[in-house]
Amino acid sequence: MKITAAEFIISAVQPHQFPEDALPEIALAGRSNVGKSSLINKMINRKNLARTSSQPGKTQQLNYYRINNEFYFVDFPGYGYAKVSKEERRKWGVMIESFLKTREPLQLVLQIVDIRHAPSTDDQMMYGWLKHYGLPVCIVATKADKIPRSKWDRHVKVVKETLEADRSDPFVLFSSDTGMGKDELWGQLLQKIRG
Ligand code: GDP
């Protein structure tokens, strides 16, 4: 995929701020620090468009990035950040759930996990919501470069089992460091963006 334009559009805190041009949207969900911003940057060959490790306490913002005037990456606020209050967590849940339930341009959700660790209860809950709302999901296990190749299979199995992942969900092993999985993930995205 040749990237000709990639722009940060808005950190939306209210639905009325969401873009209205109906371009397809690809959302990214995952724990804080899992590597969502790095994944976006890697996919579009930019060092710093998505701000890595930006403001981890900001639980209310959906960050919109418009790519090639063709689709949006929508970066969900990372969850599982220790310093977030119960009330913030609740608000996060309300916002994400209502987005998942009602957002028509949403074509695919990338559920991002760290290949090194079993998914958390927050990851399980997120995946459960995606299934509940019948949304297409692609599971992306990132930071693959951080464990030896000989251990990949075992870790992939743990991720799938812990999420109780549907066999039909695509699964991409990824690394923002090496670019592993990038072409495969573009294949998944383009299927949804271009149909
Ligand atoms: P976010 O909070 O989900 O947006 O996570 P970031 O993209 O900011 O990444 C968190 C940290 O993990 C940063 O220090 C990144 O450099 C690092 N990181 C992210 N993806 C990878 C990866 O695939 N491999 C390695 N080795 N480090 C990564």
Automatic annotation (TrEMBL):
GO terms for molecular function: GTP binding; metal ion binding. Pfam families: MMR_HSR1. Residues 22-195 form the EngB-type G domain. It comes from the Bacteria. Keywords: Cell cycle, Cell division, GTP-binding, Magnesium, Metal-binding, Nucleotide-binding, Septation. InterPro entries: G_ENGB_dom, GTP-bd, GTP-bd_ribosome_bio_YsxC, P-loop_NTPase, Small_GTP-bd. Its cofactor is Mg(2+). The keyword Metal-binding applies. GO terms for biological process: division septum assembly. PROSITE patterns: G_ENGB. GO terms for cellular component: cytosol. Belongs to the TRAFAC class TrmE-Era-EngA-EngB-Septin-like GTPase superfamily. EngB GTPase family. Necessary for normal cell division and for the maintenance of normal septation. PANTHER family: ENGB-TYPE G DOMAIN-CONTAINING PROTEIN, MSS1/TRME-RELATED GTP-BINDING PROTEIN. This is Probable GTP-binding protein EngB.
